Each structure stands twice: as C-alpha cells, then as structure tokens.
Amino acid sequence: MNSFEQRQPLILLVDDEQEVLDEVSAVLIDAGFECRCCTTADEAIAEAKVNSFDLIISDINLHGRSGLEMCEQIKQNEDLEDVPVMFLSGAQILDIIRRSHAVGGTYYLRKPFDPEVLVELIDKALWMPHLVSAHADRRQTVGSA
After folding, report:
1. What is the pLDDT of residues 76-89, one digit of tens each?
2. CATH for the stretch 10-144
3. Over the stretch 90-131, which tens digit does the pLDDT of each residue have?
4. How does pLDDT run across 44-58, given as a tens digit for each residue?
C-alpha cells in the first residue's frame, strides 16, 4: 500500500443470526469497509483485544452475554475504550436507547434497517473518535496557555 492509499476501516459485526451477519457484511463491503463477524459477546471481546477495529456493531440480544454487557466490558478496557460501539437490534426493550448510551454505545439503529442509514451512521461513528481527540487536544492547548 503506498502512502496515498488509505486503509479500509475495519468493523467488527456481532450478531447470533448468520443471516443478519451476511446481510450487514454485504452492505459494509459494498460501502468499502472491511469486516469480521462474531456470533457471541465473548468471541467479540476476544477478537477486539487482538485486532484494531475502527468500529463495533452489535445486536443487543446475543446468546450468553448481551450486547450491552459486551459494550460495557469493552469500554472498561483501556485499549478499547475509544472504539465506537453501535447497536443494530430489533430488541423491544423499554428505554433501550438510553440504556445503550449509558454503557457507552454511540448509536442505536433498529432492525430491519435501511442500508443507507446504516452506512451514514457508520461514517459518523468513525469520525467521532477523531472529533473527541481533537476536542481534547484543543482543551489541553487552551488550558496550558
């Protein structure tokens, strides 16, 4: 890869339904993203610890631990805390959006999803860590002046 080429963002998809993984990964690949898939929260956490993912997209309802529990654990890991986590779920849980934000989730999109909306939210989520970092740098510069 030469210096003019940029690396494709790497996204981790987590869902216990293979059909959903296939559908979402097809949308992501068509949009120019690279993705890896996991079917459990534990598998996703292990995968996140050894790969530099730019974004994690997870269902809420997973076998074993929920996507909310997974997100909470990821956000407690110093090496992973800045990786945005987006939820893509059909969960019909009272106040699920508030709960997903409370554990560190960036966005929540309901299934069935509009592929264009998914890609738009991914683009926004991928820029979020850069904006937070730039904001922190500005605050530090202002504070030291």
Report:
1. 999 999 899 999 99
2. 3.40.50.2300
3. 988 889 999 999 999 999 999 999 999 999 999 999 986 555
4. 999 999 999 999 999
pTM: 0.85
Q: Which tokens sit at 125?
A: 């989520």
> Domain residue spans in the chain?
10-144
Q: Which of 46, 102, 97 is nearest to 12 (CA)?
A: 46
Which residues lie across from 109 on neighbouring strands? 88
- Those residues whose C-beta lies under 8 Å from the C-beta of residue 49, and which sit 6 or more positions away, are 77, 79, 80
Name the packing angle between helices 67-76 and 41-50 (round to 10°): 30
